[in-house]
Structure prediction request, 807 residues.
Amino acid sequence: MSVGALDGLRVVELATGVAAPFAARLLADLGADVVKVEDPEGDPLRKEGPFAPTDPDHLDGGLFGYVSANKRGIVVDSSETERIRDLVAGADILVENFGPGGLEVRGLDPELLRKDNPGLVIARLSNFGQDGPDAHLPATDLTLQARAGWVAARGEHSSAPTKVGGAYLDFIAGTYLAVGILTAVETARNTGRGSDVDTSLLECAHSTTSFPVLTNGVLARMGRGPHSAGHVLLGVKPCADGWVGINVLTGQQWHDVCLLVGAEEYADRQDELRAGGPDRVEFEARVDAWLADQRAEDVVDLCQAMRIPAVPVHNGESIVRSAQWTEREFFTRAASRSGEFLHPSFPWRLSGSPAQWCRPAPRLGEHTEEVFAVPWPHRSPSAGVPDGDPAQPLAGLKVLDLGTFWAGGACGAYLGAMGADVVKVESLQRPDGFRFNMSGPSLGPRWFEFGRFRAVNLNKRSLTLDLSREEGRDLLEQLLASADILLENYSARVIETLGFGWDRVRDINPDMVMVRMPGYGLEGPWRDYVGWGNAFEQVSGQSYVSGPPDGKPQTPGGYTDPLVAMHGVVATLAALEHRRRGGGGQLVEVCQIEAGATACPEPVIHHSMTGEIRQRVGNRSESAAPQGVYPAADGWIALSVRDNADWTALGEALGHPDWFGKPGFASPEDRRVAHDRLDGLLAESTSLHEVAYLTKILSNNGIPVAKVARGSDYLQDSQLSHRKYYETLDHDDAGSDRYQGWPMRFSVGPERSHRSGTPTLGRHNQEILGGELGLEEAELVALEQTGIIGTVPTGLQLSDSSTADKR
Prediction:
């Protein structure tokens, strides 16, 4: 086996469930030595799964096996504080999710831990963060999703808001936590000081939403109402043998779809139909009639031949048989005490220090004797780098960012936020397409600077180069020679066509870390397919498990983009660690559909263990009953009843104390059976009151509850305000706006999420080409006259109707 990128890094995991253990597993996959510490009862996740609850011989559920692979496991009673402190004294990282102050309650105060180990990174994951007015509020996955805007009425026939299925938020949060950990490791190396990485699940959810505050502000300038997530054309559709996702993005794609289904008369009515109404219903019926006799695979082939982003909507059975996943050998088998099961592999591929499966998830206490027989030596204090700046842990790194749209842009934005010099490279002929998303000519001659592009290109400098011409390619080569990282997420063929495939880049700079983030991977039968976030959620299994039980699969709405971006950061920082140890540069591939599948493992695990297809459950949960989204007089609320104490409190708060004693409602099992009836009773009661009253009275009684929020609510969220999640930044053309931050806070590190606003197109051409490459003024003028560089895209012919509402 080759040495992992993070070999030598030591991690103690004091965490249960999915999110924090998944973060630790990502580190283990890349070579870190992760020791999972459990109490004698074990992580409750061991007992969750298709076999675990009833069969004493099958103690480890498949999801536990997935998030705890590649770790060593020990049992230490929580009262044995000194034993845990001694273990942590030899670690680089401690991962915990006890909740605000939970580590301190257990006698593991961070200050005391750092007396023994000054460089210790403590990764702390909680629902709302370690501080703030709502830090100690109870919450569930449903109520967190509701407060962050994830719970929504998706699709043209949806009536009630529905949450995103599975443990999607947990896997996203685990990825953000891993990013924060590796960033803090850089800070510790630079300064000799360890940092708390305070990560909020609520903020992780907010960080994946498509910039509603910024978007609504732009739409208001255009004289339009707030953006709605429910008007995607066409979305998930039934075929003769299953479901297909047809994800129209551009005006040309819309025109081609209309021709394909024999509805040419609608080809010029895209915006009109997006608004809904009788004509929308008639059009959808025409499409459904055409699809009724079609196989999903044939529809995908037809659409992709026309460059329309269409994919099969996979479930846990079909995904493992699909050609792309099969050829890339993405799914792998693992052993647990429940037997072998199938699960997704790694979200990235590193050519020089690949991730590896070294061991299955540990049996309870399997490595206790081994770990304490050969303990880690205590870490010695590190002097750090003289004058190391904790606010810029990645200072000194040079990044060439050819990324586009959300996933590519956000990866570079994070590296820039942490101090790297990130140069965003576009051409005038084909600028980043995200510039035209949620924008339009009614904003003025520089309308291409106003849209969502600004949200993911903060913390960068801007350079324009026409890479289709030799002069532009020559300049990029000069920049590559002194850069550390090259980022791109074009379709697989594009960068190679331009002459900058990995072999060429390595020849120019052997120490380069080249990060490629193609939608479908660098090889396989779908290599050249087109797609975007919605398609990636459909093909990776997330859509199939989201939505009401009696309805069609629902697409969450592009949350894969920021997930891919953060996996890009994890892989980049790991590759840099490998290079620091003398390993040189390498190619990193982050396949977007595979990153999506790693965040939705349950369908594959479930099918491989039971032979059954995991179905949609709407807003319900195995751990709470009743749970759901209920109408209020002025909106919707989400609430969860976790146990009898919650049930009693709910009845009293709503003025129905008699509910608890009613036959059929007394136990959690009874309430699960009577869930439909309870939903009716609750809806009848909640509809009499306003949202503010319900959320206040129920939360005061200890019940997890939240308003089903929208973009207009976010700036009034007291917890987000306390944690300064939104930051005001300036833009030369668009002015000041509020931007989403990162969901991590560092006790030693950057005090703000962002260092600078988004630059205008080509703003730094002279600074970079003249000041750094040494081009003379006459050369710069000639480059501008020939369109190699410049500040205004060429051939802007787009209208309002073809540029807005693209996601």
